[in-house]
Every structure is written in C-alpha cells, then in structure tokens.
Amino acid sequence: MITLTYRIETPGSIEAMANKIASDQSTGTFVPVPGETEELKARVAARVLAIQPLEDAERPTWPEVATGVARLKRADVDIAFPLDAIGTDLSALMTIAIGGVYSIKGMTGIRVVGMKLPEAFKDAHPGPQFGIAGSRRLTGVEGRPIIGTIVKPALGLRPHETAELTGELIESGVDFIKDDEKLMSPAYSPLKDRIAAIMPLILDREQKTGKKVMYAFGISHADPDEMMRNHDLVLRAGGNCAVVNINSIGFGGMSFLRKRSRLVLHAHRNGWDILTRHPGAGMDFKVYQQFWRLLGVDQFQINGIRVKYWEPDDSFVESFKAVSAPLFDPSDRPLPVAGSGQWGGQAPETYRRTGQTTDLLYLCGGGIVSHPGGPAAGVRAVQQAWQAAVAGIPLDEYAKDHPELAASIAKFSNGKAA
Q1: Distances (CA, A) of 50 to 75, 117, 260, 281
Q2: Residues 216-270: tens digit of each pLDDT
Q3: In the chain, which end has fewer C-beta atoms inside a 10 angstrom radius, N or C?
Q4: Residues of the chain whose pLDDT is less than 70?
Q5: Tens-place pLDDT, residues 9-53
C-alpha cells in the first residue's frame, strides 16, 4: 500500500470528506457507473485508514466557505492506495494521490503532510548516484562540512569575468563553488565558454595541490537533449558537478538526465515555495523531497538557519531531517545543502539542531566572498566557526585566537551583511 496523509480543513464532515477523497482519487466518479464492481473496488480502491482530529482553524485557507460558518474542522487523515492502482510510476503517484485532491469541492484547505512508499519503489528508481559518500570522495573532505560558495553577481558576468572571480575562490581553499541557479547559458555567458574559462583553473590547481574544487555548472534546460549536451560539455572538460533546477525540468527531465549522468547532480528547488508557503495548502517538504531523491539527486539545497527568505528555522530543521533520513537504506540519502545568507555565525545552531552532524554542504555567498580579509580569510572563518561548533566552544571565545573568525563576527553578526 501507498499511504498518504492529508491535512483536511472543511466546514463539513471530516469523515465524509476523507471518504470522498478516497473514492474520487481511485475508482469513484460523480455517479455510480457500470463496471465499478465490489471486486474491482476491493482490488484498487483507496481506503481511509485513520483520522486524527486537530484544532479547528480560525480562518479558511481558501475563501470558499459561506459567511456565518462558525467552525472549520481540521484533521490528519491517512488514506492508503493499493500498489495495483498506481504502480511505481512517480507521475501516476503525483496525479492520483496528490494532484487531483486540490480540486475537490467542500474543503477550505488541504495539505499533503506525509507519504509512505512500499519497498517496490526502491528497485524501480535509481536514487542518488553519488550522494553523501560520493560528494565527500570527490571533494576530499572528511570529518567536517563541505564548505561552498556561489559566484556573484548572479547574472551579468561574462565568462572571463566569472573566471577571474572563480580563480580567486579556487585559491582560497574552498571545497565547492556553484553557478547561481539563475545562470544557465545566456547569450552573454554561454555555458561552453564559461566551462572553457573556468575548468583549466580548477585542473591547474588540482595539479599543484592535489585538491580538486567541485564546481557545479548550471545545465538546466527544458529540452532534455539540450540539457544532456550541457552535461556532456561539463564532463568532457573534466568537471564533476551540475546545478539542476528540478522544478523547471520536471520529473521527465530529471529521469532522462539521471539515467545518463556521470556528474554529481546538485538540486536547486526554486519554485517549491509555491507548493508550501501557505501552511494550510500544498505539501510538506518531507513529501516533496521523496520524488526527487528517487529520481536521483545527489545534493539537495534546503535553505538554512536565519535565512534571508521567508522560511522559518523550524522548517529548515524538518527539511534537513527529511533529507537525512533513509527512504529505504542509507545509500539513498543526498547531501543536505544549507544556504541563503549563511556565514560562520549560524554554524553552532545548525550543528545543534541537525543532530550534531557534519554531513552537509555549508554554502555561503557574501559570508565568504565579502569577508574583510578576502575570500581565503572568509573560508578560514567558516571553517573556524565549525571547529568551534563541533567542540562546543562559543564563537566569541574561539575568535580570540582566530582572527579570521573575529573579523567575520565583527562584520556579519548584525545579520545584514551576509
């Protein structure tokens, strides 16, 4: 069975609405039809397993309730779909168990808050090719977070200008660099020219030091064939990572890419906020992320502590837990990527609230490149912050003997500059 948990909000009966969802999203229709036999329903009909009442809603999520309604009832409802009804196709799962429920009348809100998949999904989809272990192996980083940064400005830099900034970042000792998700292959910076300008710097540094900085090039494209050609450009030049805007390329694009890919696939989830920002509608990240992990993302960007966007810290923590928990076994875990306005100052709370793990990519933009001492000092400051966090030493105390961290605290502690 495939079990979905729906958070239903309705002025009517929760039980009736739960049964309506189970019927409408499996065998049912508006009126009884020939062929809808009891045997057929026993084989493929969805069924309500449990109803957990919640506090009433104070106001409707959707303005579809008559004025004067005094009570909006809420409950978490578990509905099971037989595997025979859906199979292991993720597009069928999204269509049947999720996509259609939002159109059902009689509710003022519905949110998908849980999904449990049977073992059959494990063998039907490839999952991550590199994940945590592969990301560590390729960056040569063990025992601490992988420290990364982003080339800024996000848009406008030409290939030689991007290479100039990248060269400085490569020399800084950073582990990971990425194109901003908004940068793919614009006319002023074609991907092939950007690769040609950047990869020789990375390979030269590797020859000199033995350390190969992982650079994630933006390869996303609506045409899977074109995206695959972008992938091949990176691979032929000696690159090992790519940024993929998963909502933009869709399930089909991701499946096409993963089957052929030899690069670490760094997933950016821009657009996910549309699905989740209202707490009474859409879906939880712990549901959403399962699809992309099965399809094969290796690194998953999930914001961070005290981000510059709307997402609260608790949401980041829940996202981190979801990505870090095996779906079926530990090998299917992508590397969590904490980003958005990060500098060393969030390291202690990130470490504490994520279960004291260092299995993450800690992605800083201005928190590294805008350090008063330059990017190299910025990288050292972030590394020092994580050393302090793991050792349980307050940052201010650790900074007394670590000038890079001290300078970082002086500049970024007001939370505005990173």
Answers
A1: 10, 17, 41, 20
A2: 999 999 999 999 999 999 999 999 999 999 999 999 999 999 999 999 999 999 9
A3: N
A4: 28-42, 66-68, 415-418
A5: 999 999 999 999 999 887 765 445 555 666 656 677 899 999 999
- Inter-residue long-range contacts of 59-64, CB under 8 Å, 24+ positions, other chains counted: 60/9, 60/108, 60/109, 61/9, 61/108, 61/109, 61/278, 61/280, 61/281, 62/107, 62/108, 62/109, 62/280, 62/281, 63/108, 64/107, 64/108
Concatenating the DSSP letter of every residue in 235-286 gives HHTT--EEEEEHHHHHHHHHHHHHHH--SEEEEE-TTHHHHHSSTTSEE-HH
Cβ-based neighbour number of residue 353 at 10 Å: 16
Which residues neighbour 315 within 8 Å (Cβ) at sequence distance 6 or greater?
285, 303
CA 146 – CA 78 distance, rounded (Å): 38
Largest CA distance in the chain: 79
Residue linked to tokens 């991007």? 162
Nearby residues of 397 by Cβ (< 8 Å), 6 or more positions away: 388
Nearest to 263 by CA among 129, 79, 64: 129
